[in-house]
Design a protein that fits this description.
The protein has 5 helices and no strands. α2 packs antiparallel against α3, α3 packs antiparallel against α4 and α4 packs antiparallel against α5.
Length: 98
C-alpha cells in the first residue's frame, strides 16, 4: 500500500486524499472500520482533506477515528493522544529481523 504522506509532502494534496480514501475503503473492507489500521488511515485522510479545505468532512472523519480509538484503546492511551494531536499517523509494515 502506497503511503498517502508521500504525495502530501510533494505538494499534491488531492493525490494524497484520493490515495487515502482508497486505502481507507480497502482497509475497512479487509479488517473492519474499528481496526487500528483503518482508524489511522481515516485520521490521515482527515489531515489531507483539511489541507484541501474540506474541513467538515475532515472533522467528521477525525471524530469517527478518535471515537473508535478511544473505545478500543482508551481516551488516555498514547496512540489516542497522538492522534488527537493531529500528528501524521505512521506505521511500519516491514518484516522485522529475527
Amino acid at each position: 500500500m502506497k503511503r498517502a504522506a508521500t504525495p502530501t509532502a510533494a505538494g499534491e494534496p488531492q493525490a494524497a486524499a484520493d490515495l487515502g480514501r482508497d486505502a481507507v475503503d480497502r482497509a475497512v473492507a479487509a479488517v473492519g472500520a474499528g481496526h487500528v489500521l483503518a482508524v489511522n488511515l481515516e485520521a490521515g485522510l482527515a489531515q489531507d482533506l483539511r489541507v484541501l479545505g474540506r474541513t467538515a468532512e475532515a472533522d467528521e472523519r477525525e471524530g469517527r477515528a478518535l471515537a473508535a480509538l478511544s473505545a478500543s484503546h482508551g481516551p488516555d492511551h498514547p496512540q489516542t493522544l497522538y492522534m488527537r494531536s493531529r500528528a501524521r499517523p505512521y506505521w511500519d509494515f516491514e518484516g522485522q529481523p529475527i
